[in-house]
Write a structure and sequence with these properties.
Length: about 325
């Protein structure tokens, strides 16, 4: 059944009147609302079933707009902005008092991103206001990389969906925090640790997870996140383990193995291609015919860090068969 997608102009009007609309970005689809309108922010949390201790990313469409959100813009952050904005990089900066506490889970900082997707930029410009936009999925579920994925999870819960094609990056933005003395990577993404370090030198990697009920440094850091409904297992299969009859496999590169590859992240082992395909493959295999989804190991270098991060969180932690 063909879906009714919304035009950017209509989306902007709805956003201006406090509604929430799913919009395309290069990373994943976002569920957008006016970041200064607390009613719109409340609708975002409601539609996603997202706890309010999980703060939102605020999206801008020009560098000047950062002044509406951040009270400080350190030199290293500026350098990253010059190099990687617009693009899949989010920076956590001290917030201006006008940014509602609901947007930041009462943290004194705001997470800010300038997306490169032309439709995202158009909608932000037409709305005339920075847009809070977490991933347009139900809380803890797989993020959407097409308008159809959004419709599957959120149709009837939100005011509209703008179609901008399949996301080219395919995983959530890299998050770097400037809240402390040293820039800290909170969530790995397409702008890799190596790229950040090459540009500004010292960048720390945050390893910790959060406690329930507490504002977290990066909610993507919760131990279980990005989960399909079918159990997904990422890691070494325990010795002597029995695989259920309907086991699907997401391969990375070579397809031979104990289980026939169902889909391939990248037949040539290309990490960019694998990243763009990951969530779409997880969506495809998340059907009641499958009892288990196995995923091949991805090397822990460059973009592989983001893939390993998402797959580890998506994975069941113990072997259930
Ligand atoms: P999502 O768009 O659903 O992936 O979630 C938004 C992401 O933004 C979360 O993973 C948060 O970690 C991050 N975020 C938003 N605000 C802040 C903040 N003030 N400090 C640190 N991380 C933040
Ligand atoms: Mg999310």
């Amino acid at each position: 059944m063909p879906k009714e997608w919304m035009k950017p102009e209509a989306a902007a009007r709805i956003l201006q009147s406090g509604g929430v609309v799913a919009i395309p970005t290069e990373t994943v689809y976002g569920l957008a609302g006016d970041c200064f309108n607390v009613k719109a922010l409340a609708k975002i949390f409601e539609a996603k079933g997202r706890p309010t201790f999980d703060p939102l990313i605020l999206h801008i469409a020009s560098l000047e707009e950062i002044e509406r959100l951040a009270s400080v813009f350190p030199r290293a952050a500026r350098t990253l902005a010059e190099k990687f904005w617009p693009g899949p990089l989010t920076m956590v900066l001290p917030k201006r008092p006008e940014v509602p506490d609901l947007a930041t889970s009462s943290l004194p900082t705001a997470a800010i991103r300038f997306p490169v997707h032309p439709v995202a930029q158009e909608i932000i410009r037409l709305a005339g206001v920075p847009l809070a936009a977490p991933s347009a999925n139900l809380f803890k579920h797989v993020s959407p990389t097409t308008a159809e994925h959004v419709a599957e999870q959120l149709e009837g819960r939100i005011d509209g969906i703008v179609d901008g094609g399949a996301c080219t990056v395919g995983v959530e933005s890299t998050i770097v925090s400037f809240a402390g003395d040293v820039p800290t990577l909170l969530r790995p993404g397409a702008i890799t640790l190596e790229m950040l370090q090459e540009t500004i030198g010292d960048v720390r990697v945050k390893e910790s997870t959060s406690k329930p009920g507490q504002a977290m440094a990066a909610p993507g850091m919760m131990d279980s996140h990005y989960k399909p409904r079918v159990p997904l297992f990422y890691g070494k299969i325990p010795e002597g383990a029995v695989l259920p009859r309907h086991t699907a496999r997401i391969a990375f590169g070579k397809t031979e193995g104990p289980v026939q590859a169902t889909v391939n992240l990248s037949s040539s082992g290309n990490l960019l291609e694998a990243t763009a395909n990951l969530y779409a493959h997880m969506h495809t295999l998340d059907t009641s015919e499958n009892e288990l989804i196995l995923v091949d190991e991805i090397p822990m270098e460059g973009l592989g860090r983001a893939l390993n991060d998402r797959l580890t969180r998506a994975s069941i932690k113990t072997w259930p068969f």
